[in-house]
Write a structure and sequence with these properties.
The protein has 242 residues and is an alpha/beta fold. The protein is built from seven helices and seven strands; from the N terminus they run E-H-E-H-E-H-E-H-E-H-E-H-H-E.
Length: 242
């Protein structure tokens, strides 16, 4: 993906999950500003419409796809719709995630843990399975998964979320190894670090949000990664520059 003009991603089709707010919404706007047509998906239609409107007002294009990634067959239906309209997918940003309540491992609530595993792990595998054929039809298919440091560095009380993100990282890494020699698809895992999001606010209720970077910083890095043409199995962390 070469930067040849002010719309370096023109002609590209990108899908961003969890794009109704936070990092996902910022990423959708940034990709659209770079010229990509962005498919934005999340559960709340009104929030998606707000993101779509902001993209259109800025001169970009987007398609909303309200859905719950945890619902049976929802991902397959989305992949079929993308295939029918574009017959390929150039960029897949897996951002949607669920943070269960923070508590000791011995007290983890099964309902919240199951929800986190369903969205953070099972839906990730379903996304990769459903969109793999479309990514392979692109001349430069790219997958970027948003992770967390607690997946690689366990932290007390973060066991449920950390376990789900460790599994998330493993799925992406294995997929990257499996496709690197048989396709042009490349895979990266991005740890956004401390970022001003609703999830962060729930995890750190006493933190001043102005002390951590805004979602736009992470979104900008994602676009830059695509323009730099990252090597497969690339992994990095977006540090707080403030």
């Amino acid at each position: 993906m070469t930067d040849t003009n002010d719309k370096p991603l023109a002609g590209r089709v990108a899908l961003v999950t969890g794009s109704s707010r936070g990092i996902g919404a910022a990423t959708a706007r940034a990709l659209a500003a770079a010229g990509a047509h962005v498919v934005i998906t999340a559960r709340k239609t009104r929030d998606l419409e707000d993101v779509e409107e902001a993209i259109h007002e800025a001169g970009g294009t987007a398609t909303i796809a309200p859905m719950d990634l945890a619902e049976s067959d929802s991902i397959a239906r989305l992949a079929a719709a993308v295939a029918e309209r574009w017959n390929r997918l150039d960029v897949l940003v897996i951002n949607a995630a669920m943070l269960p309540a923070l508590m000791p491992v011995t007290q983890i609530e099964s309902k919240g843990f199951n929800q986190a595993l369903t969205l953070n792990v099972l839906a990730t595998q379903a996304l990769l399975a459903a969109f793999d054929p479309l990514l392979k039809r692109s001349d430069a298919g790219r997958v970027i998964g948003l992770t967390s440091s607690v997946g690689a560095e366990p932290r007390a009380y973060w066991g449920a979320y950390g376990a789900s993100k460790a599994a998330f990282d493993t799925l992406l890494s294995c997929y990257g190894q499996e496709v690197q020699n048989i396709s042009k698809t490349r895979v990266a895992i991005l740890d956004p670090g401390a970022t001003r999001t609703e999830m962060r606010a729930r995890a750190y209720p006493g933190e001043d949000p102005q002390t951590v970077k805004p979602p736009e910083d992470v979104a900008g890095r994602i676009v830059q990664m695509l323009l730099e043409d990252f090597p497969t199995l690339h992994r990095e962390r977006v540090e707080n520059a403030r």
